[in-house]
Specification:
It is a single chain. The protein is an alpha/beta fold and about 300 residues long. The protein has two domains: about 120 residues, 3-Layer(aba) Sandwich (Rossmann fold), CATH 3.40.50.720; about 170 residues, Dihydrodipicolinate Reductase, domain 2 (2-Layer Sandwich). The protein has nine helices and 13 strands. It has a seven-stranded mixed β-sheet with strand order 8-9-7-10-13-12-11. The chain has a six-stranded parallel β-sheet with strand order 2-1-3-4-6-5, sandwiched between helices. Helix 1 crosses helix 9 and helix 5 runs parallel beside helix 7.
Length: about 300
Amino acid sequence: MTKVFIDGSAGTTGLRIHERLENRKDIELIILPDEIRKDKDARYEALNSSDIAFLCLPDSAAIEAVSLVENKNTAIIDTSTAHRVNPEFEYGFPELFGRRERIKNSKRIANPGCHASGFVALVEPLIREGIISPNADLSCFSITGYSGGGKQMIAQYEADSRPSLLGAPRQYGLAQSHKHLKEMAKISGLENLPCFSPIVADFYSGMEVTVPLFTKNLKGNLEDVRRIYRETYNSKIVHFEETPDEEGFLSALAFSGRDDMEISAFGNEDRIILTARFDNLGKGASGSAIQNMNILLGVPEETGLNV
């Protein structure tokens, strides 16, 4: 029986991980009572007693949690931003070339950010195959449900009396300093940070990440892009879809409540848009964390997931 501890189980991601694990017969959850769940000594004991520890914490607390782990057999899956570009941590997106085996053999895994998951999935294969140059200047916009902002934003959007401006999509990250930018560039193989426009809208969960391209800046065309995606993404969790049928529209809500990701590419001979649709709480957070745990355990990756 694998012992699992969720450090930060009261947060949005931690709660979702707990929901996915509480009925699994191969998992024994280590649960701290509410009155001591933030106690350092109690957390130290739980972390070092576990086979796998999920860190669902702010960055500073995640760094502290890692420092508390002295058991060399404890594997850490960190869902915070703290270690995503740390070379001592394996980036937990197994669909990227060569990463599944490295995740399997790692004790330190950094779970991807939600926006970054879509961007990296779209861009990394095209850089690796030479379609996009590593020194390209890319842009990206991404629309997400408000659950991505955590408990505080959820409460704000679901309040009986809320500001009227919350009724329409809101762009943020205006200073171009979003915390996902570093991993978006590094994991994709880009030399330059992309120009990134994240948007939060009035729906609970779901995400749609878009990267626009001009064909004149590529070493290939739309069919080359689709061929690479078709060859790269053919699993139950990340899959290429040639032509999603929504009568000319593409909804960011389509994958709400699911743990898989849909990759697509549209456009013409001059302009292309790359899209990734998934749930910001699924493949963008807790679903991805469970997938990484399943890889460590050697069980089918979709175990306990909705795909």
